[in-house]
């Protein structure tokens, strides 16, 4: 029996007649590199959905575990991103070699991600409360604002990633909780000006990006109009998770590590807030 079989090592005869040992690449690496090349060559376009696990298993004649490891590697490198309930998609974030982000902006990426995670937790409930408490006039105004914002479809290089923040503030205001609205208004200047939309969306994909965002906005507004708090929360969560996913992909593609910057972000956020006085003070 050949003791090298299944070992991941194959014999290689060199010019001197000596046998050397060459270690074979793990199957997951082979699959990941093949998919990465398809992405780089344009065979898999930005925004395209990856084949299913079963399809990739059949194409490469490997197990699901191998496929999952390969896709996880691509995801860690920012080449693919998940879309909740739909699967994995080729990232729309331009490759770092195709764009330049100022160093100052790059340094704030971990902090921005931390703030977006915080924002998500608050806005999901904000949307639900809005659906349950809004007036007919407020619902109408929110739809009008959505239509106005979504119709602009500006050049990604000339608009901020969170260009729709006023739409989110209108929802928060109709939630009838001044703490929620005040908190999100406070976060706005920290989040909105940081990154151009062009950092995460290639110009050629502008139309499909705006169409998808409008679809996400519409799902939120439809639920608000139906006064369906559960669906409003679900739609808002999906919308913000997708947004957060794009910024995380940007961080991975740029080689930015989320170290202790999240803690620094929290300290920066609350440094000016006064500590409540002790009872009896």
Give keywords.
disordered N terminus; 281 residues; Arc Repressor Mutant, subunit A; two-stranded antiparallel ribbon; single chain; 57% helix; disordered C terminus; mainly alpha; two-stranded antiparallel sheet; Four Helix Bundle (Hemerythrin (Met), subunit A)
Task: Please describe the topology of this protein.
Layout: E1 9-13, E2 19-23, H1 27-41, H2 53-60, H3 64-76, E3 80-83, E4 87-90, H4 103-107, H5 109-133, H6 136-152, H7 165-173, H8 178-191, H9 206-225, H10 229-253, H11 261-270
Antiparallel strand pairs: 1-2, 3-4
Helix pairs in contact: 1-3, 2-3, 5-7, 5-8, 5-9, 5-10, 5-11, 6-7, 6-9, 7-8, 9-10
Helix content: 55-70%
Q: According to CATH, what is the class of the largest domain? A: Mainly Alpha
Instruction: Give the overall average pLDDT.
Output: 80
Within CATH, the superfamily of the largest domain carries the name: GntR ligand-binding domain-like
Q: Tell me the number of structural domains.
A: 2
Instruction: Just name the CATH architecture of the largest domain.
Output: Up-down Bundle
SSE arrangement, N to C: EEHHHEEHHHHHHHH
Distance between the termini: 84 Å
Protein name: GntR domain protein
Organism: Mesorhizobium plurifarium
InterPro entries: GntR_C, TF_FadR/GntR_C, Tscrpt_reg_HTH_GntR, WH-like_DNA-bd_sf, WH_DNA-bd_sf
GO molecular function: DNA binding; DNA-binding transcription factor activity
């Amino acid at each position: 029996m050949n003791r090298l079989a299944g070992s991941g090592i194959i014999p290689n005869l060199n010019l001197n007649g000596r046998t050397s040992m060459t270690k074979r690449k793990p199957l997951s690496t082979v699959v990941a590199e093949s998919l990465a090349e398809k992405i780089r060559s344009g065979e898999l376009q930005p925004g395209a959905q990856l084949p299913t696990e079963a399809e990739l298993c059949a194409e490469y004649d490997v197990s699901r575990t191998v496929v999952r490891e390969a896709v996880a590697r691509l995801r860690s490198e920012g080449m693919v991103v998940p879309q909740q309930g739909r699967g994995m998609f080729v990232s729309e974030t331009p490759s770092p070699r195709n764009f330049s982000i100022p160093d100052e902006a790059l340094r704030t990426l971990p902090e921005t991600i931390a703030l977006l995670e915080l924002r998500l937790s608050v806005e999901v409930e904000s949307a639900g409360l809005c659906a349950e408490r809004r007036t007919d006039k407020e619902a109408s105004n929110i739809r009008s604002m959505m239509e106005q914002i979504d119709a602009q479809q500006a050049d990604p290089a000339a608009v901020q990633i969170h260009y729709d923040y006023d739409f989110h503030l209108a929802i928060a205001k109709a939630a009838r909780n001044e703490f929620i609205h005040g908190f999100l208004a406070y976060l706005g200047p920290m989040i909105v000006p940081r990154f151009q939309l062009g950092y995460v969306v290639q110009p050629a994909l502008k139309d499909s990006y705006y169409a998808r965002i409008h679809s996400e906005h519409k799902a939120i507004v439809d639920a608000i109009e139906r006064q369906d708090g559960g669906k409003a929360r679900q739609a808002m969560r999906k919308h913000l998770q997708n947004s957060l996913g794009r910024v995380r992909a940007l961080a991975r593609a740029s080689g930015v590590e989320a170290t202790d910057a999240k803690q620094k972000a929290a300290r920066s956020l609350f440094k000016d807030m006064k500590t409540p006085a002790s009872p009896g003070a």
